Amino acid sequence: MLLFAGLRERAGRDELVLDGLPAGATVEQAIAQARGIVPGLDSVAFAVARNRRLLPAANGRREALAEGDELALLPPVSGG
Amino acid sequence: MLLFAGLRERAGRDELVLDGLPAGATVEQAIAQARGIVPGLDSVAFAVARNRRLLPAANGRREALAEGDELALLPPVSGG
Amino acid sequence: MASAFTDGRIDVEALVRSVASDEHGAICTFVGTARRRSEGKEVRRLRYEAYLPMAEAAVAEIVAAARARWPQAEIAARHRLGDCPLGEASVAVVAAAPHRDEAFAACRFVIDTVKAQAPIWKQEVFTDGTAWVGDPASFRSGGAGAAGGAGAAGGRGP
Amino acid sequence: MASAFTDGRIDVEALVRSVASDEHGAICTFVGTARRRSEGKEVRRLRYEAYLPMAEAAVAEIVAAARARWPQAEIAARHRLGDCPLGEASVAVVAAAPHRDEAFAACRFVIDTVKAQAPIWKQEVFTDGTAWVGDPASFRSGGAGAAGGAGAAGGRGP
């Protein structure tokens, strides 16, 4: 799971390896595991990208993960 | 009286000297004299500047001229 | 203040530098260039003429009006006179401001108002003659050299 | 297609040349630069980070959407990553089109959408710490060097 900006700094690293997620685990389960690793993960409203596409805010986090998926947590963007 | 762009080309020169205008002549009288000199003067809708200020379209041409006034006939502008 | 008019190439980068600063996060630049085609006809180059003292005052007033409306903006404008080859800039407007709303709005206001109001005239030079834009009856046949001589300096002195 | 991202200075003139042609009479350029002040605080420099493969795709999609909407426009965009000193360009968008309505509209659309959607993050480096814009809880004291190391390359590879 890739981390950026303030989330990367909070975690002290730019990638988390999530072990032990059961087969068919959802995006939300992966995020729950990240909560135990990244201090203050919920201090910022982040979006989630799966394989470089933004997940729909509505129920994207209920999707089941597949082998090799690239997840990324994206704090509010501020380019420009 | 200064001429620009198509009016300058129609007249073949960039300035007309208007002789014999009576004291207290109006802008319109000066234009009438220019009509006799510049072929096709009214083939383009021109504005009139007096001392580098645009005359109001409504009744600016009824203004009386003063000694040393600089008149200019301005075809539709097309800068840019 | 520098003249808003030049007989040669417009140095757009210098114009940008003249308004940029680290107080301004947004710079909007508009450059108008000479197009090869105009209403279906092939253009060889453009030629510009101005009523110079009145046009200088007009551009200065337009820039002042923009600064009154967007007080934090810095604005510069330059217009070319005389011959303008295809692809080269005939006019440039730069607006620098703290934020992009002001930069876009001020830049757009200045170019729109200069085009609508400043006493500047554009002549299109075609392969078969010349014509003043906005004055269709001004077409003169004779190719690129037809209007040589008159207005060669591109503008009138005071 | 060239990358929309660069670790060094953005060459705005080269970007303009890449879209200009004598078919286009209007070129609108937007440049965002690093400002000295942000909400009353003194900024020493900016630092940008991106989710690079996703951000490249995002900018390409935004440019493609603009070209679909303004088919005659040519558009180029470049964003800086890593350190951006005060006064230097962090982002540049150029739109060339036959007429200025399209050039302004396409340029504005691209910068607005890149800022709103592309996965790019700006960190302000103050004299007394750093903070990611839009993530106030991310403030870390310790001055300009605090965030060194992580993200030094300014972006992530694929």
Offer a few descriptive terms:
heterotetramer, A: 80 residues, alpha+beta, four-stranded mixed beta sheet, 20% helix, globular, C: 158 residues, six-stranded antiparallel beta sheet, 3 helices, 10 strands, 38% strand, disordered C terminus
Describe the structure.
The complex is a heterotetramer, with two copies of chain A (80 residues) and two copies of chain C (158 residues). Chain A has 80 residues and is α+β, with helices and mostly antiparallel strands. A four-stranded mixed beta sheet of chain A has the order 1-4-2-3. Chain A has helices spanning 5-11, 27-35, and strands spanning 2-3, 47-50, 53-54, 71-74. The N and C termini of chain A lie far apart (25 Å). The longest helix of chain A is centred in the middle third of the chain and has 9 residues, at 27-35. In chain A, a hairpin with a 2-residue loop joins strand 2 (47-50) and strand 3 (53-54). Chain C is α+β, with helices and mostly antiparallel strands and 158 residues long. Chain C is 28% helix and 38% strand. Chain C is built from three helices and ten strands; from the N terminus they run βαβββαβββαβββ. In chain C, strands 3, 4, 6, 8, 9 and 10 form a six-stranded antiparallel beta sheet that branches. The longest helix of chain C has 18 residues, at 52-69. The radius of gyration of chain C is 16 Å and the shape is elongated. Chains in contact: A-D, B-C, C-D. Chain C binds chain D through residues 13, 16, 20-37, 86-87, 98, 100, 103-104, 107-108, 111, and chain D through 13, 16, 20-37, 86-87, 98, 100, 103-104, 107-108, 111. Strand 2 of chain C pairs antiparallel with strand 2 of chain D.
